[in-house]
Each structure stands twice: as C-alpha cells, then as structure tokens.
Amino acid sequence: MNDKAINLSDKLALFHEHWSPRVIAEMNDYQFKLAKLQGEFVWHSHADTDEVFIVIDGEFVLEFRDRAVPLKRGEMFVVPKGVEHRPVAATECSVMLVEPRGVVNTGEAGGDYTAPNDVWI
Q1: How buried is residue 36: exposed, middle or buried, by Cβ count under 10 Å (0-12/13-18/19+)?
Q2: CB contact at 8 A, 93 and 36
Q3: Cα–Cα–Cα angle for 115, 54, 26, nearest 5°?
C-alpha cells in the first residue's frame, strides 16, 4: 500500500502528449488514468465496458452520433459500453479516465490515436 497522496497536478506536469492516457493508480481490475485532450478524437466504442470521464481542468464536448454533452471542470460522465462516442476539445483539457485494465483508448476503431496501454507515471 502506498501511504502518499497522488497529486493530480504534479502527475499532469509529467507529460504533454494529447490523447495518450497515463496510469496513476489501480483498484481491483480498474485503472485511474490521466489524459490531456485537444482537437477531435476518433469515433469509437468499447464493446465490453463503460468508460468514465472526469474533467480536472478545462472543458470538452463528448459527442455521440445523436447528441453532444458539454463537460467542464468538476463534472463527469459515464459512457455506457457499446456506445459510439468521441471527445472533442477546442483547447487543452485534462481528464481522469476510470476503466478496466487493458482497455484500448480507441476501442475497436484502432488507428493513429491508439496509445500504448499500462504506461505509468
């Protein structure tokens, strides 16, 4: 057990890449990841799991095929499994993702935005 608090600002200062989640903690089979968003991500879904977005700083829009959900600092949203979505951030936004270990950031879509899994900071 780690007896030190995890400082999110300190962890966010350790990387600058957009769309490349970094793991900061685990609980059971779930990982807590930090990511920086800017621009438009790819349309994708996760067939086997829900995905949680918690906005730490900034704001972004979580787009779905039939609607859009704006999210700002201090807000969160749970994307149900199998639902196609994409985050869009006009300016840099920092988020925490909560999802099972091994989830690929681009889901079944793959492509250039696919980030390596289990990158810890």
Answers
A1: buried
A2: yes
A3: 60
What is the secondary structure of 82-113 as a DSSP string? T--EEEEEEEEEEEEEEEETT--TTTTT-STT
What pLDDT digit, counting tens, does each position of 2-51 carry? 789 999 999 999 999 999 999 999 999 999 999 999 999 999 999 999 99
Scanning the structure block, which residue is given the tokens 């900071």?
Answer: 121
Per CATH, domain 17-100 is 2.60.120.10: yes
Query: Per-domain residue ranges for the chain?
Result: 17-100
pLDDT in tens, 63-72: 999 999 999 9
